[in-house]
Each structure stands twice: as structure tokens, then as C-alpha cells.
Amino acid sequence: MMRTQHGFTLIEVMAALAIFAMAALAGVAAATNHLNDLSYMQERTLARYAASNALARLSLQEEPQKLTEGVEIVGDQQWHWRATFTETVTEAVLYVEVTVRPSADSTDSNYRLGRYLEVSE
Question: Where is it found, in Gene Ontology cellular component terms (predicted)?
């Protein structure tokens, strides 16, 4: 008499485990990329706020050219900024660009923001 087979063979179980392992790895990779992107976006947003604050501070100065660098605290983190001024064809207007870094000795900037400022002659 022949017996009918019940259940899965070893090959079928191994194939199912391999498929599950690949799907799990893809899920972990996607989650890791998402967390890295979130961290990058948070850092970039805070740097943008620091640059915006620095530009606001410069726009309130009578002689903004005298203030070329400083520190802004945003999100319990210090952001070091540096301003560069460029003359425009209009005498009383300067273009100022602020670059923001997480530390004073960092060479790469996290964010750049520019604005035109009216200066008193």
C-alpha cells in the first residue's frame, strides 16, 4: 500500500526560508535608509534655521560687514556661521551669503543661504 505524503519537503522549506530571509534583508535595508535620511533632513533643517537666524541678525546691524562670523544655538546644538559680502551694482545694497557648519574647524558647510541687504552709507 502506498502512503500519501503530508507536509513539505526539506527543499521546499529551505526555499521558503531563503525567500523570507531576502525579504527581511530588504526590509531592514529600507528602514536603515529611512533613518539615515531622517537624520540628514533634521540636521539640514536645523542648519537652515541657524543660517536664517544669522541673516536676521546681520540685517539688524547698522554695519553688517563688521559682523562676519558667529555662533547660533538651534536645537541644543551650536552652529558656526560665516558671512561673505559681495557688492552689487546698487551702491546701498550688498549680497550676503551665510554658510553654516556644525563645528568651527569643519571644512564642509551644511547649508548656505543668501540675501540682499540694504546698508546705510
Answer: plasma membrane; type II protein secretion system complex
Q: State how far the alpha carbon of 90 is from the alpha carbons of 42, 68, 86, 110, in Å.
A: 37, 21, 11, 30
CATH homologous superfamily of 10-118: GSPII I/J protein-like (3.30.1300.30)
**pTM value > 0.85:** no
**DSSP, res 90:** S
**What does the DSSP assignment read for 42-89?**
HHHHHHHHHHHHHHHHHHTSSSGGG--EEEEEETTEEEEEEEEEEE-S
Q: Which three cell numbers stand for residue 10?
A: 526539506
The SS3 of residue 6 is coil
What are the sequence ranges of the domains in the chain?
10-118
Q: Cβ(81)–Cβ(72) under 8 Å?
A: yes
- pLDDT per residue as tens digits for the range 27-37: 999 999 999 89
Q: Give the length of the chain.
A: 121
